[in-house]
Amino acid sequence: MDKIKLIIAREYLSRVKKRSFIIMTILGPILMASMVVIPILLTQIDDKDQSKIAVLDESGLFFPNFKSDKTHLYYKIEKTIDKAKSDLAKGEHDILLYIPKKMVSLPTQAFLYAESQPSMNLKSYVERVMSKELEEQKLKIQIDSLNLSEEKRKIAMNIPKAIKTSINISTIKLDENEKEQRTYSGVNMGLSFFVGFMIYMFIFIFGVQVMRGVIEEKTSRIIEVMICSVKPFQLMMGKIIGIAMVGFTQFLLWVILTTGIISVVQVSFQKDITANQNITATSQLVPTQEEVVQGSGNKVLDIIASINFSGIIFSFAFYFLFGYLLYAALFAIVGSAVDNETDTQQFMMPITIPLILSIIMLQFVLRNPDGPVSFWMSIIPFTSPVIMMGRIPFGVPYEELALSMALLILTFWGATWMAGRIYRIGILMYGKKPTYKELFKWIRYKG
Amino acid sequence: MNLFIAENISKQFSNHKALDGVSINVPKQSIFGLLGPNGAGKTTLIRIINQITAPDTGSLFFNGEKLNQNHIYNIGYLPEERGLYKKMKVGEQAIYLAQLKGLSKRDAISQLKLWFEKFEIGAWWNRKVEELSKGMQQKIQFIVTILHKPELLIFDEPFSGFDPINVNLLKTEILKLRDEGATIIFSTHNMASVEELCDNIALINNSRKILEGSVEDVKHQYKSNTYELILQGSQHLLKDILGNHFDLLDLKNGSANINATIKINHGDQNDLLKTLIPQYQILSFNEIIPSMNDIFIQRVAEASKNNS
Prior knowledge:
The structure holds 2 protein chains of 2 kinds.
Chain A: H1 2-16, H2 19-48, E1 51-57, E2 72-76, H3 81-90, E3 95-99, E4 111-114, H4 120-146, H5 150-163, E5 171-174, E6 180-183, H6 185-219, H7 222-227, H8 232-275, H9 280-285, H10 287-293, H11 297-306, H12 309-337, H13 345-367, H14 372-379, H15 384-391, H16 398-426, H17 436-444
Parallel strand pairs in A: 1-2, 1-3
Antiparallel strand pairs in A: 3-4, 5-6
Chain B: E1 2-12, E2 17-27, E3 31-35, H1 42-49, E4 57-62, E5 65-66, E6 75-78, H2 90-100, H3 105-118, H4 134-146, E7 152-156, H5 164-179, E8 183-187, H6 191-197, E9 200-205, E10 208-214, H7 215-222, E11 226-232, H8 238-242, E12 246-253, E13 258-264, H9 269-276, E14 281-287, H10 292-307
Parallel strand pairs in B: 3-8, 3-9, 6-7, 7-8
Antiparallel strand pairs in B: 1-2, 1-4, 4-5, 9-10, 11-13, 11-14, 12-13
Helix pairs in contact in B: 2-3, 2-4
């Protein structure tokens, strides 16, 4: 047992000390945090630069509705469009908004001139302002034609506002004890995809590391030296466990560093964010954030409470570990069967297909987490780590979970036994690439 | 007293028989040469001794006990195809391999430092293995093999990749190890070093043992009663003087001397001398003893003739 500890320690330390591991550990959280932080930062950068928008409104209807703010300053000009354009070219204005007058009907067209592409935000804001004004104008025309009294006219003008309704459907899960629990499908989907993808990624990255490690030992011929002191099975398991620990270390560091970076950034920008009313850009991307900012804390707490965190964390740890162990054993077989990495393709295929299939199917599973495809793929051990993890945030019956876990453990056990049998022969075989038939023969070899 | 005994070992692989009823006895504190052409089954036998693979039939004894897992601490093996973890530092790697052989970290370090001094590679302790020359890597592998002071050492082509100076250094160390009590199994194709180092040999060909014994006995067994003489006198008369008791195999004329190779058919050396002394001045008289190289080639050729 001491030997396997020594092997684990070597496999772990030699990888953790590598420059590539340190770089990935630092770079990963920066990348992940930047996905959250950069949109926030971008709105900050916009603030400092107020763009001046000249409005040439020939109809005269719209200009009063444009409200200047920190990022955009609207001002009226009354020139010909040609003169205005040449002023823009000279740099007098940043952007020129031109609303031409139509003789017969109401104007429905506008032009934004700028030296660079104007932002989508500005475009949609202009559209919103204009369509709102036009709706009101049309409404006025309709109401005018009714010849109502002044009082009734006021009421009629308010009809659109009065009938405006937004529907909010809450999904509520009812368990056997008729206990109600509010669910948030969007949040669940996000969470499911995230955990499923995490498992997929870790199995792939660290499974391939196991394979590479085995090939490295074969090609450097250290293997002959090693197996006169340790049993091949100890060497294989030591490598698999050592690399699993590398994976856990990296994962933990990523979680800690990412939350660290995000919270530091959040604290230092908190003031600006709350002071700034114009964060439509970010709030459109991340709807929950707007709610956070607007202070509807109750809903956030409710969402958090609706997630079964301890269950998810437990199953994540379980499927992460056993999914990895199962695939690591298979990757070890591939590594032991070949002499160099270019030969791995043929043997990699049957291993990667169920993995890739499960990540593709994950999206469908999220849409219908209780359907037959979801059920079977979360029971079959080769796809269950990713698919079951995707289902868990939606709630999975305990007996299905138990069946899936039991099958996974059994398959892991069988695969490891088989890998051990093939590995001990494969590591001493050089030259010709074995066929599948030969691999099966190795399983039965004595000694 | 034999340190290691293998009895009737057979090993079958899917399409060929690697070993067929091979037995060897390795006496304690001796150097045992395991010889044979490529593919004869030497590596398989060595792997069986190291318990890397198990034999189909046959039994193995170490120091009188049945060979078991605990004995791997008492065996040091330097494989022919050997390597090291390229990205690891030399010192770390040597400590790791020593620990796997049961040494404590502290013992490993202190022992290693001594050997690194002796082999003049102390400066390389903190370098990565990939920066080392092949010869230096071989030195490290040799040190790691013997570091845990095993009773049985197995060297498979230990001299490959070494320059003559380091070959001598290694030979000296191997002989010293034997004198200090180690038993050594030595597998090589270099017959000169077999004669120089080995006490006993076994020759394996085509998965069977075809020859075993002490180097001296084997040589005596294969000598053909042939002598090389340097004589002074008439060379024309030599053939007649020898008669039919002795065969003149070869005759060379020096400036003043005759170099003759003579095989004795009847009688012994003294009879030959008695025949020659009246006519010739005898300057030199040597028995021709076959080299291990000749015996190896002769026996392997005979064995394959018998097979076919």
